[in-house]
Amino acid sequence: MSSLGERIKQLRKQKKMTLAELAGDRLTKGMLSLIENGKAQPSMESLRYIAERVGVEVSALLDEGNVEELRELLMEVETLYKSVYSPNAEEKKEKFEEVYEKITAIKDDLQGKKYEEIKLLDYYIRLSAHLKYEQEEVTMFDIIDYYERIHAYSRIIECYSFLAGDAFQRNDYKIALQFILEAEQRIKPYEHLIDHIALLDMHYILTVLYAAVDDTLKTQEHLKLALEIAHKNKIYYRLDDFYRFTLIQAIGQGDKEKSKYYLTKLKQHADFTEDKLSISALAFAYGHYTNLIEKDYEKVPGFRKYVIPDRYEKDSFDDSILYKMEEVYAYWALGKFQKALDLSQSITIPEYVHHPVDLSIMLRCFAVRALCYLELGDKEAAKKEVLYAYHGVAEFPSSIYKSFIQEAYEKIRYGKRVK
Question: Which Gene3D superfamilies would you find in this protein's record (predicted)?
Fold first, then answer.
């Protein structure tokens, strides 16, 4: 029985294609050579790409036996897993349970030797975590070992990212950072074999986590590495995340020129992608810049109409919590305290927000609300709001948002001036 690599090589030669021709722009010639010689295992995405290039079904490349059944199950599981976007917790749980049961039915037969088996076990662990089910038979560290064994190195980063994400949601930023640093060391011997998007992801997560633990030098180091990867390889994925992150840093430092530069970059990216989330984030970025750098508060309320292109329905962007917080801040700065309070009443911090910087920006809104209550003569309500914000940022790194909250606390508790 021929191996997967041998079948790929045979089909390539039948098509009279060189390694470079088959590799195209999705694989390197070196990686394809490793696959053909049985020294690397392609992911399902790469396998589909190779099958398409040689003009056959993926099943023609795979082993006989139960691989086709596993592949069909994996595709079904992936489709179901990726379709779970419901904000309703019960509905989300039901869908996850449906996927979990499909894998549980065959879990005892999954030995972690083939890609399909490993990926299904990977989903099993992720779903166990989502559903808060106890299971000790296989861990994510086992999955990492399995992926390394079949040379699926990019998947190793995804596994460590999952572990880091779990710690991040518990606000264990140092533990989350340790997981990604372990990933960086684990993949170092194989870095030349890992796709650029996976590396970009790793450096982005390191950038965010170093910022969370207030290590400015390391934050800048990994931000620079990530942007170099993106620009060198013409990758637009995550660019708006990087630009937004750098913009917030520049605003925090009061750097007007740098802030304007990254604001322009964000606008260019939003115009290029025409992505609704990018456009919504751009509205917040403009509001944040205008409030904190230009201090042109009159300009912020209703600012979205200048940022969001005419082809979009403006009302569909009204649920942007971050932008609404900027409007609240502007009304407070303009002395329109009741208007700021009224607008802020519906604002809560979403459960998915965990980064200290994001939380600090959002908690600042509660300090603003407290200052509005104070101006309107309700000191008890002011104390309640400012204490929530003050204790919320107590363990966070220093920032302009934390300073604002602390100053608001001083003013409300002790009558001191807030800037």
Answer: Tetratricopeptide repeat domain
